[in-house]
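Task: sequence design from structure.
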């Protein structure tokens, strides 16, 4: 039983780090642009499918995980520059409707381009199989995923807290009108933020392919979880999104030990509990 719990804790941490990447991306867009990006889930799906296609064309999973998320960034740039930006001065509802429409269009585009049947992508040979941790054997890819995503999250946090660009992004989350007053090109800030959010979603999608596979509905499946992460974390909290993603991943994974049917329900129960006890979120401010 102890080995099973340890295995599920590691699985939950691996899944939670993927959730954290998706949650941070959505938090950035919501915090700076002040709009919930309903297309965030489909960008996650595009990241998975772009990675799958690039890996098959090049014969290298590593090139796939390098190219796939960058292609998602291009999609994000097009959505922001050619669509969302034109609606900044319009009523807020038009932005929501536009992004909702984009999500549906991209969802159908996945089916039109890659078909309605899902795919699987094997990890690279060096990460195939299991490695001994002394007390148990654990899949190499999941262990590498934990280490890699931890490095990405730390690098992202340092970028947002220790660089001038990160300071501008964080200032945009706090008060985007003040950023404009300081003479900073707010359109570039919006474009960078949307692109960074798209990259994190695409990277999470690409990294998830050897574990979860690829299905046309994967974008719709991840989107509610991403919003739960943002709510539990507290709107605009980057550190909170990271912690919330890990917490939700662990809760979901551990629930499968004793009550597998409730593994997905526990996510929303956790969100409801946070809303009741701390409406501003675990790391948010009232």
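Answer:
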């Amino acid at each position: 039983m102890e080995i099973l719990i340890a295995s599920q804790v590691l699985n939950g941490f691996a899944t939670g780090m993927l959730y954290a990447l998706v949650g941070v991306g959505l938090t950035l867009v919501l915090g700076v642009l002040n709009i919930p990006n309903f297309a965030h889930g489909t960008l996650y799906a595009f990241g998975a499918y772009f990675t799958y296609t690039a890996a098959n064309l090049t014969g290298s999973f590593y090139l796939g995980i390098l190219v796939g998320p960058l292609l998602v960034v291009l999609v994000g740039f097009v959505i922001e520059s050619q669509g969302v930006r034109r609606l900044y001065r319009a009523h807020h509802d038009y932005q929501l409707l536009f992004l909702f429409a984009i999500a549906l269009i991209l969802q159908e585009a996945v089916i039109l381009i890659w078909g309605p049947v899902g795919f699987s992508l094997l990890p690279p040979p060096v990460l195939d199989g299991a490695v001994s941790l002394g007390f148990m054997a654990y899949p190499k890819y999941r262990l590498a995923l934990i280490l890699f995503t931890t490095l990405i999250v730390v690098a992202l946090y340092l970028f947002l807290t220790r660089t001038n660009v990160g300071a501008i992004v964080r200032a945009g989350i706090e008060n985007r009108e003040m950023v404009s007053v300081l003479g900073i090109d707010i359109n570039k800030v919006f474009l960078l933020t949307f692109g960074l959010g798209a990259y994190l979603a695409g990277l999470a999608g690409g990294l998830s392919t050897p574990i979860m596979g690829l299905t046309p509905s994967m974008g719709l499946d991840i989107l509610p979880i991403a919003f739960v992460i943002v709510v539990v974390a507290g709107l605009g909290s980057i550190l909170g999104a990271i912690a919330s993603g890990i917490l939700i991943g662990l809760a979901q994974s551990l629930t499968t030990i004793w009550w597998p049917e409730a593994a997905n329900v526990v996510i929303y129960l956790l969100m409801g509990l946070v809303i009741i006890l701390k409406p501003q979120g675990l790391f948010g401010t009232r």
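The chain has a mean pLDDT of 87.
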